[in-house]
Amino acid sequence: MNLYNTNGADRAPLSGDFAKQYKDKKDFLTEKDALISYLRMNQKRDGKTTPLANNSLRHALNLAVDKQQLTDRILGDGSFPANGLLPKDFVQNPTTGADFRTDSGDHLVYNKEEALKYWKQAQKELGTDKVTIELLGDDQETTKTIFAYLKAQFEDNLPGVTIKVKNMPSKSATQLTSDGNYDLSLAAWMPDFKDPWTYSSLFLSDYFNNHMSYNSPAYDKLVKSTDTTLATKPEERWNAFVASEKVLLDDDAAILPLYQHQTAVLQRTDITGVQKHAFGSPYSYKFIRVEK
Fold first, then answer.
1. In Å, how far are 115, 171, 247 from 121, measured between CA atoms?
2. Would you state the pLDDT for residue 14?
3. Where in the numbering of this chain does the Solute-binding protein family domain appear (predicted)?
4. Is the pLDDT confidence value at 15 over 80?
5. Is 225's pLDDT higher than 90?
6. Is the CB of residue 245 less than 8 Å from the CB of residue 86?
7. Band of pLDDT at residue 279, cut at 50, 70 and 90
8. Which end of the chain has a smaller Cβ tally under 10 Å, C or N?
9. Measured between alpha carbons, how far is 154 from 158 in angstroms, rounded to an integer?
10. Could you tell me what percent of the chain has a pLDDT over 90?
11. What φ, ψ does residue 88 adopt, rounded to 5°?
């Protein structure tokens, strides 16, 4: 921002308070992203099951977060609630052209009353009225702000839940996640290519990036069918992806989707031709022009 304000830069990405502070300026832009932020829910740690192995607790946590307030008041950069695994405006039905989010619908939408019901059920199943859960993430200011909000949401809406926030350098947090040494951890995924597989494959039981001990034969069968028996049947393949998201979220509440990123930037009004991509490399700069 210092460089931008002193004409030392032509573009400046914004987050947090800066996004909210500058959103009314004429050179403020919001660029679409297909990046989804979510919480991993680790069901096994140090060889032992965690409280998050309990389906009712996972549902309770999912339903206890007001994502609209998170995106509007905490982030303020144009990001919006994610009520599914796959992002909006990313892939479309091969027959009808409908967006994936339209066909799959919303899942695990904030509902304080339902969250409390699931929490009471979890207390019975776990045999305790108190649960302490660690929340792991990097030490960036935006992450710390998000974590403070999530801690308040969980503890206020689910009396008896205690959240211990653990912020550390990104490399260390990533290592702990890879080792499965966490309860909840903040994750984000930007697609490598334009196909649901880039998201859905993340939670296959034998996938190298599944660091949360999630294992669902029903989910595995649906997702793997899209790469085998349904590989040449576009409509059936699409329906299998839609069905797999329902298993992951409605049935298992295996992750907690938070929001779909939007990139807030300040950009000089004489700059044109910046191309933002929904997958792969995020930008192409070769068409940029400066119109003096």
1. 10, 37, 20
2. 85
3. 9-207
4. no
5. yes
6. yes
7. confident
8. C
9. 6
10. 83
11. -80, 150
pLDDT > 70: what percent of the chain?
Answer: 100
pLDDT at 149: 97
Contact 216, 252 (CB under 8 A): yes
Q: CA dist 18 to 88, 161, 238, 250, Å?
A: 25, 32, 40, 36
Residues 6+ apart with CB under 8 A from 180: 42, 44, 45, 211, 212, 213
Residues 66-89, mean pLDDT to the nearest whole number: 94
Q: Cα 207–213–217 angle (5° rounding)?
A: 70
Q: Taking residues 204-213, what's their average pLDDT?
A: 93
Backbone angles phi, psi at 47, to 5 degrees: 75, 0
Residue-level length of the chain: 292
Which of these, 66, 79, 87, 68, lies nearest to 19 by C-alpha position? Answer: 79
Q: What pLDDT is recorded for position 291?
A: 86
Cα separation, 14 vs 21, whole angstroms = 10
The two tokens of residue 248 are 């992951």
